[in-house]
Amino acid sequence: MEPVTETFESRKKHVCVKGEGLSIPVCDKASLPGTVTQRTCVYGGARIVLMPITDSIHLVHGPIGCAACTWDIRGSKTSREDIYKKGCSTNLQEKDIIFGGEKKLYETIIELNKLYKPGAVFVYATCVAGIIGDDIKAVCKKAEGITGCRVIPVQSEGFQNHNKTKGHWIGGDALLDYVIGTKEPEETTPFDINIVGEFNVAGDLWGIKPLLEEMGVNIISTLTGDSHVDEIAQAHRAKLNIVQCQKSSNYVAKKMEKKYGIPFIKVNFFGLEQTVASLRDVADFFGDEEMIERTERIIESGLKEVSHKIEEYKKRLTGKTVALYVGGNKAWSLVRPFEELGMDVMMSGTKNGIREDYEMIKEAVRDGTIIVDDANSAELTRLLKEHRPNLLISGAKEKYISLKLGIPFCDFNHDRITAFAGFRGFVSFAKEVDASVSSPVFELTSKSLRGD
Amino acid sequence: MSMNLIEKDRVATINPLKTCQPLGAMWAVTGISRAVPLVHGSQGCSAFVRYCLSRHFREPSEIAVTSLHEDAAVFGGRKNLVEGIQNVAIRLKPDFIGVITTCSSEIIGDDVIGFIKTAKGELKEKIGEEAVEKIKIIPISTPSFVETHLKGYDNTIKALADYVAEPSQPNEKINIIPGMVNPGDIREIKHMLRLMDIESIVLADISDPFDAPLRPSTTEYKPYYPKGGTTVDEIVDSANSVGTISLTKYAGSGALSLEKKYNVPAELGPIPIGVRNTDQFLRNLKKLTGQDIPDSILDERGLLIDSMADVASRYLFDKTVAIYGDPEITSGIARFVGELGMEPKLVLTGSKSQEFVKDIEKVAKETGAEIDTMIDQDLRSMEVYLKDNPVDLMIGGSDARLMAKENDIPLVRVGYPVYDRVGYHRRPIVGYNGGIQLMDLITNTVLEKYYEPEHWKLQQ
Questions:
Q1: Is any Cβ of chain A less than 8 angstroms from the Cβ of B43?
Q2: Chain A partners of B67 at a C-beta cutoff of 8 Å?
Q3: Alpha carbons B93 and B116: distance in angstroms, whole number
Q4: Which residues form the Nitrogenase/oxidoreductase component domain (chain B) (predicted)?
Q5: Nearest CB to B214 within list A97, A104, A406
Q6: Is the peptide bond before B60 cis (omega within 30 degrees of 0)?
Q7: CA–CA dist B44, A43 (Å, integer)
Q8: pLDDT value of position A451
């Protein structure tokens, strides 16, 4: 079989087409050294999971760059404190590398606690912290003893693994080991839930939370969007976990099921169909007749409010093609919402997919769809040039690659600024997709004065 | 009057005003034609920098990485680097590969020079000796735990002087080391050189690679290599130039190296921001090349001074300013706002530079202002300072935007990074033209904030 696009021999099997052969690309392998990989590191994976905890200080133990390049870049919104947005670092210097950075880390934690009185201090280990062998666990324990503030080690050395998914798990482990189960709720209800894997990017949580509350469930905590550490500490009392980002957070949900017997269901609030199905699944789980009735009313009014607003966008978008190169969860969960807009997903891929992610993608897409794993920027460029989708959905690093090729782009990464979840979120989503695809500038990008 | 140095009274770094060396190196290598920056480190080291550069320039940022993982931390990164170099060479057929180290590869003590040799040896068997010799593969040491991104930039330019420049026949060119300034600034410098009829070699020229045209793609390699950048031949030829002007005295090692090794006279700084600094730049050019300063440049100078006369005393005089960012841009702007009659109340940089302190002392003497100076500091220090000492205006990058909002102080965006406004990387702040641009920006910001719209018909 012909490879989908020209690339390194060892990369050929990372790109496949559904319906031909296995339909699942080779995945979860180390990136080829010397390529412009779109991947990031384990530290990055842990940080994006934990950073939305708004009342906490996120302290990066390493040289300045790891903190300087990542502070306040996650578009997780807050309804309360915003100390999570501070860029905190131990700023390790040469002498710390030689003599160790533990003392500096300790003093930094003490200072930060004094300045901000945070709900917790999360201490992230970087590559350097790992290599010089700083015992961040011991330092955190000592600092916690002195400050009385939760000081939580996150063993997220960047080079640990090629897959930042490992970082998601490490972030989850920090919560499981040091936070969840450390505080009892004052009261509980039969309908207590946690929303897991919802990071309130651009305010997504606020499109979901009111729907659930109107249904009559009680949200103990969100892991981790717009959350306080104290709320997550009580998460073990929930009757149900609903998991939104199944890429980052199935891990935590599974572990909570094992440790606390909390069942979980997978939900998805992107797109109307998936929003409706998710609300029904939650109501069905509790089986409460009144809740089920209320849920149907919420669904009816939600659909009524937005359905006609979608139509105008759909008119312009029908028949257009879209390529997804996104985090694992979105690589399959966005397929239906695009179909609801009349669009065809012609390619879907992820940077850090594991086999179960690609199983999900394979299920979601139609035959003939290109499925791609860890495409480096040259491959991505080539795929876009060869197949010219009407839209690429991806993140900031891919944005300008796409635009340079004259291919419309829409951000669906953690730095977007528009909320897309729930009924109203879907209208915003349709509007933003339309604004990208239908912008007249893209008629100019393919025209040359010389007519060549 | 005087300069007061305010020391940092904290161990913690909160809201950093600097980043690490590799970023500066990736920035500089991007300014070389058909070059690939190859970061020898963890994937995050390239991913986050690419993200930050893309956000600032609104351009793709193509930076390869050797993807070090745990086995490399234990056994060294030899395999990854040797394989990485070969993959870059075979696939992208570059003219230049800059091997940029990181904290991890520095600490584990990888023998980068040795690994490059090994990679070249193996490559010769695969693509032939001639093809390998065509590619310059240069080690750039950028330990992240030493100094800042500006040092990484400096080390890169020095590596070009040390590993690439070769003396042959003298040329009539001038070398320019622009420092970490924007495409618009480099273009303005080149514009002045054209008016002076001077040919130049810019080490290294990011102006096109980080501000590239979108044209229908017709060639195979587009957009793997953006338009422009300094060619390797030009860098080789830099050993033969009549002089080097580094627009930054804080990153002039490359200029000094060319002077020491090849007798190319070096002038370090100042960055031509404002009238006096630009005058100095032109005098340096004249001194090194013997070219006269033409009328066209005197006209540009006159236009700037004319514009300053129009507005400086009326709207800007005595307005207090907090200026933060990289040392040369910050000190250049401090001097310029002094020329405008404004008072630089606070100047702040993340670098730990005594040279900077001296520069600000000089500005204090010239302007008669009392300037509070902070080196090796972060934005938290500025936040604390501004609570007690509010100023009329802030000048610096986007990272202080929330602070500006909270304190109700208008912010004029300059330098790196600026990600919450568009066009700032295209607009120069250097030279007389850049001075006009910057002064207009400052003045309009002051007008917007401090002047009532209903007064306007009276207030010319």
A1: yes
A2: 30-33, 37, 39, 162
A3: 16
A4: 20-446
A5: A406
A6: no
A7: 8
A8: 63
Q: How far is the alpha carbon of B7 from chain A, nearest alpha carbon, in Å? A: 16
Q: What is the CATH number of domain B2-14+296-450?
A: 3.40.50.1980
Give mean pLDDT, residues A23-29. Answer: 89
Tell me the average pLDDT across B219-229.
73
Instruction: Give the whole-angstrom CA distance, residue A401 versus residue B114.
Output: 34
Instruction: Domain ranges for chain B, please list them.
Output: 2-14+296-450, 21-153, 174-214+221-293
* Residue scoring higher pLDDT (A73 or B139): B139
Contacts of A58 in chain B (CB under 8 A): none
Chain B residue at shortest CA distance from A400 = B60
In angstroms, the CA B203 to CA B31 distance is 8
Interface touch B104/A404, C-beta < 8 Å: no
pLDDT digits (tens, 9 = 90+) for B228-280: 999 999 999 999 999 999 999 999 999 999 999 999 999 999 999 999 999 99
Domains of chain A in start order, with CATH, are 7-29+317-415 (3.40.50.1980), 40-177 (3.40.50.1980), 190-300 (3.40.50.1980)
Contact yes or no for A448 and B215 at CB 8 A? yes
For residue B381, pLDDT over 70 is answered with yes
CATH architecture for the domain at B21-153? 3-Layer(aba) Sandwich (3.40)
Average pLDDT over residues A210-236: 96
B174-214+221-293 sits in which CATH class?
alpha beta
Model pLDDT for residues A72-118, shown as the tens digit of each residue: 888 899 999 899 999 999 999 999 999 999 999 999 999 999 999 99
**Residue B218 near chain A (CB below 8 Å):** yes
**What residues contact B452, with CB distance under 8 A and at least 6 apart?**
none
Taking CB atoms and an 8 Å cutoff, what residues of chain B touch A380? none
Q: Which two tokens stand for residue B407?
A: 């304190």
Task: Say if B81 is an interface residue toward chain A (CB within 8 Å).
Answer: yes
Would B2-14+296-450 and B21-153 be classified into the same CATH topology? yes
Dist. CA B167–CA B21, nearest whole Å:
29
- Residue at A219: amino acid letter: I
Rg (CA), chain B: 23
Tell me whether residues A401 and B60 touch, CB distance under 8 A.
yes
What pLDDT score was predicted for residue B342?
Answer: 97
A224 prior amide bond cis, ω within 30 = yes
Which of A44, A128, A448 is the closest to B47 by Cβ? A44
The dihedral over CA atoms of A102, A106, A108, A114, expressed in degrees to the nearest 10, equals: 180
Is the pTM higher than 0.90? The answer reads: yes
Helix (H) or strand (E) run with residue B243 in it: strand B243-246
Tens digit of pLDDT for each residue in A310-364?
A: 999 999 999 999 999 998 888 999 999 999 999 999 999 999 888 989 999 999 9
B321/chain A closest Cα distance in angstroms: 24
For chain B positions 369-388, those within 8 Å of chain A (CB to CB) are: 380
**B15 close to B41: Cβ distance less than 8 angstroms:** no
Question: Residue A5: its pLDDT value, please?
Answer: 81
Q: Which of A159, A378, A446 sits opposite B104 (nearest CB)?
A: A159
Residue of B nearest to A38 (CA): B47
Q: What's the confidence (pLDDT) of residue A247?
A: 82
